[in-house]
Amino acid sequence: MSVAMTGPSYSMGQSGNSLWTQLFPSSPSPCDRYKHASCSYDGNVYILGGRDNSCLRDFWRYNIVCNEWTELSCTSEAAPEELEEHSMVAHEGILYVFGGMLDSAYTKCKCALWVFDIDKQKWVQSQEKPSIRQAQMPTNRKGHSAVVMGSAMLVYGGYVDIKGSSPDFWSLNFDTMAWSQLSESQNSSGPGPRHNHSAVVYDNCMYLFGGLRGLRELRDFWRWNSSSHMWTSLRTKSGPSKLIGHSAATYKDCMLVFGGGEIQNTPTNSLWRYSFTSHTWWQVAVHPGCNAPSKIHHSCTGLGSSYEANTIVPSVGSRLNDKHRPFKNRCFPASLTSLESEGAIEMETFRLDKCYAGDSFSRCSELESSNQDLTGNKDPEKTGNCLTFEKANRTLWSYKKDDLLQGEDEDIVKHLPDLLLVIGGRPLTCHSPISIWHMTLTAS
């Protein structure tokens, strides 16, 4: 029987803080970018396209636990061309990419939907699934939102070529690969035309915030009910200001909104939290001693059980033929040597004034006692081959790379701690590797 890792209580009230830590990617890794798309599936993060000095056509998989990047093929006939401001979602082992084409006369592909099979590790024609001939389907667009609700992908708005901001609302049925329009362009009861907004799903409803309507920045907030197919405007006294190019994720019973800006050249580092139960906004403070990055046109993805709306973890029973495998969990004090011999995954409260045996642990715990704390910039060599992050009581959880190679990765994925990755965005970093920050929420 699998045993979940035990640790400090991790609930957060309105007085909680956000703890930000920059990750230093291993080599090779993608270049820094913005207007890209990312999503997580089964403990891995997938990143596609975007811009640096030009539009990019590359596809990468990131293993957060091992801190390793793998470049995947994006050159087959079924693969997308260069894309920017597109969307990518995951559902049952398949990645669905929509929109973002350059719309030039030299574009070889006129289809705005691409499908990547994670198990086969290849791009496949979307028509390979059972489909029906359709009279209508959404045209290529940029800056739209795409979320997964049940067995469908919901796409709202976007910038459509010379037509500008769109109010279209579409649904793609994953089982039939059939598109259906959920609201007409003339419908004035919903959010209306917009792009560069954000959207999340919670309890069979889609929540949409901000964006651009033409050249006008927005801060309105909407809910779409999948049962009644009705839009509701959510008016609150507080909340974020006008935002474009921000990101959003569902965390427990809340919506997290990060970054973006009131205009294109003013990225912010504000993190806001909206409670779906109390219908209130509050700004999340930054943990003392760390700084959140100012980002716009970035992407974010959540990992861990509290981000289940964004992180799809396959059933452990189906993955392991209904046979539970033991998950070793050890808490110090205990002999480090004996634990390493058992191949365990260790948890320890690290202290700045203590030395640790073992190469991986010593490198993970080199948090120089100068003004650099757990969230300060460190030499990439000092991070080691493991993921570390801090809980509210300064407890570091450490996953050693060697442990992941002994058949326990399924359990590690299941018990991944809750963290939000913020990937890329403007301003670009001065060095080539993509900018990655992970954020955890702590109780004050």
Structure characterization notes:
The chain has 444 residues and is mostly beta strands. The chain has two domains: 22-318 and 421-442, Kelch-type beta propeller (Neuraminidase), CATH 2.120.10; 328-407, no CATH class. The protein is built from five helices and 32 strands. The strands form eight sheets. The protein has a five-stranded mixed sheet with strand order 24-1-32-31-25, with no helix packed on it. Strands 5-4-3-2-26 form a five-stranded mixed sheet, with no helix packed on it. The longest helix has 6 residues, at 336-341.
Shape: globular
Q: How are strands sequenced across the largest beta sheet? A: 24-1-32-31-25
Radius of gyration: 22 Å
Unreliable spans: 1-13, 128-132, 310-386, 388-398
Give the N-terminus to C-terminus distance in angstroms: 34 Å
Helix content: under 10%
- Total DSSP helices: 5
CATH superfamily of the largest domain: Kelch-type beta propeller
What value does the average pLDDT take? 77
CATH architecture of the largest domain: 6 Propeller
Number of domains: 2
**What's the β-strand tally?**
32
